[in-house]
Design a protein that fits this description.
Elements (H helix, E strand, L loop, with lengths): L1 H26 L4 E3 L1 H11 L1 H21 L5 E10 L4 E3 L7 H19 L10 H9 L10 E3 L3 E14 L1 H68 L5 H36 L7 E3 L7 H9 L9 H22 L4 E14 L10 E11 L7 H67 L5 H36 L6
Parallel strand pairs: 1-6
Antiparallel strand pairs: 2-5, 3-4, 5-7, 7-8
Helix pairs in contact: 2-6, 3-6, 6-7, 6-9, 6-11, 8-10, 9-10, 10-11
């Protein structure tokens, strides 16, 4: 009974483990099939550097729109409150003499009251004269002024400012447009660099994959030879020395096989990192370098060496045009500027904070402003001279850039030509090495050859295969660098 229960528990545990393994297998993501075109497409959509470059273009477009806003009227709602700590004093020297102006009037009124009111005191001792003198401003020649204004001053309304003719602003807008062009070209340059990196990383994966295949085949041949030698040794046909040599040869190839496997894994990780996908995502790279062999000869014949689309050169030309616009900007600062300004305000002045009793008085104005530059200490003239020297420097710099680019193009084409010759020669070597290996194997099987000859033939075949794959990779990498120099955005 105990055995039955124990067996039942083992069955249940086994089922649970099996179910877990099946679930893990189902949840495991299928390998992502990768071709060169697919790798480039994913990289251009997912790589952070490409996204950052595209965002920079958008930033420059917003900056251009921000500069354009200066052409439109600027309307602001404004308000102000000020508290008068000490009122302004106004002096009225020479305006008029209060005593001389009002003396006849006061005298006439004073005499009239004296004639009709009993007991009325006239003259400077009288009540009328005293009251008028008490409330009259000081005489014109007095050193005491008149205090004006109130404690609380309020104002609020709208202000308008509209630049109508501003030549320097127009040139600034042209420079902003060139900033957008420069950002677009920088984004294109980023994509070209990314495509170049993806192509070389993809070819690197294929190279590591083909090298792994070559070492695997070499290792399989070494194991096969070891098994044949072991069979013959057991039959007493060969010596123990041959058996040891076959075993050592197989074990010497094993580290190369492991190293090539690691190289393939590292190349795959590099490709995934450039593509911007999850490092844990398994990928499957189709094909091999041999698939590109037939197209190599046509590519070297159809190379266009024009630098018209070189990104570095296009960016340099845009920067040079910006410098030329800067000269025009400095010259535009010599021209007059015209602007319109205006305001519509409500103002109130009070000595208390009883807002309901305030009286608001509207005021408005429209102004036409004209500014004509006359003298600035030769600042603009010196800036123009400085910029013209920079333009002359850029002229010589461009010639140097073109010269270096042409040199890079010629080096890439020469390298491609040499790699084609290596491909043709190593392909013939592979055929001869394969034939030599087969002959050595037959000679050894018939007892007419030695194991050393067989191992040397296998080594020659391995080296020729690796050299052939390396030559194809070098050609493709040189072609990718050439396309980058020429500014080609896609793989042709």
């Amino acid at each position: 009974m105990m055995k039955f229960k124990l067996g039942k528990k083992l069955i249940i545990a086994s089922i649970a483990i099996l179910t877990s393994l099946i679930t893990m297998a189902q949840n495991r993501q299928a390998p992502l099939e990768i071709t060169l075109e697919r790798a480039i497409e994913i990289a251009l959509n997912e790589n952070p550097s490409v996204k950052i470059a595209d965002m920079e273009v958008q930033k420059k477009k917003y900056a251009k729109k921000s500069s354009q806003s200066a052409l439109y009227p600027q309307i602001d709602a404004v308000g102000q409150y000020s508290r008068t700590l000490k009122k302004q004093v106004m002096y009225m020297d020479g305006a008029f003499n209060m005593e001389e102006t009002f003396a006849p009037i006061i005298s006439g009124v004073d005499n009239t009251f004296a004639d009709h009111i009993q007991g009325y005191v006239s003259g400077d001792k009288g009540e009328l004269y005293q009251n008028i003198a008490k409330n009259s401003p000081p005489p014109a020649d007095s050193n005491e002024g008149i205090a004006i204004g109130r404690d609380n001053n309020w104002s609020g309304g709208f202000q308008l400012n509209w630049p109508v003719v501003v030549p320097s602003l127009w040139k600034n807008l042209e420079i902003s447009s060139l900033d957008v062009e420069l950002a677009v070209e920088s984004a294109r340059s980023s994509k070209i660099n990314m495509i170049n990196s993806i192509r070389k990383a993809y070819y690197g994966v294929l190279l590591a994959k083909d090298a792994l295949h070559v070492f695997q085949q070499s290792y399989d041949n070494a194991i096969l030879s070891y098994n044949n030698v072991n069979d013959k040794y057991e039959q007493g046909i060969v010596s123990e020395f041959d058996l040891i040599r076959a075993d050592v040869n197989a074990k010497n190839i094993k580290p190369n096989l492991i190293q090539s496997q690691n190289a393939y894994n590292i190349a795959s990780l590099s490709l995934k990192a450039l593509m911007g996908i999850d490092i844990d995502q398994e990928i499957s790279v189709d094909g091999s370098l041999l698939d590109y062999e037939e197209s190599l000869y046509n590519e070297i014949l159809s190379v266009d060496t024009s630098l018209m689309y070189n990104s570095d050169l296009k960016k340099f030309d845009i920067q040079k045009e910006q410098m030329q616009k800067s000269v025009e900007l400095y010259k535009a600062q010599y021209y007059p500027t015209i602007s319109i300004s205006g305001n519509y305000m409500y103002m109130s002045m009070n000595n208390n904070f009883k807002f309901g009793d305030y009286r608001w008085n509207p005021t408005s104005s429209v102004n036409l402003n004209i500014s004509i530059p006359i003298f600035d200490g030769l600042k603009k003239q010196n800036e123009i001279r400085q910029t013209k020297i920079s333009l002359e420097q850029m002229h010589w710099q461009r010639e140097d850039i073109v010269r270096n680019l042409k040199l890079a193009v010629n080096n890439n084409i020469n390298n491609m030509t040499n790699y084609v010759e290596q491909i043709i020669s190593t392909k013939d070597v592979i055929a001869q090495a394969q034939k030599g290996y087969e002959i050595s194997q037959k000679l050894y099987d018939t007892g007419m050859g030695t194991l050393l000859d067989l191992n040397n033939a296998q080594l020659g075949l391995t080296q020729a295969s690796l050299a052939f794959n390396q030559a194809i990779y070098n050609f493709l990498a040189a072609k990718a660098d050439l396309d980058k120099t020429l500014g080609i955005e896609i793989n042709k």
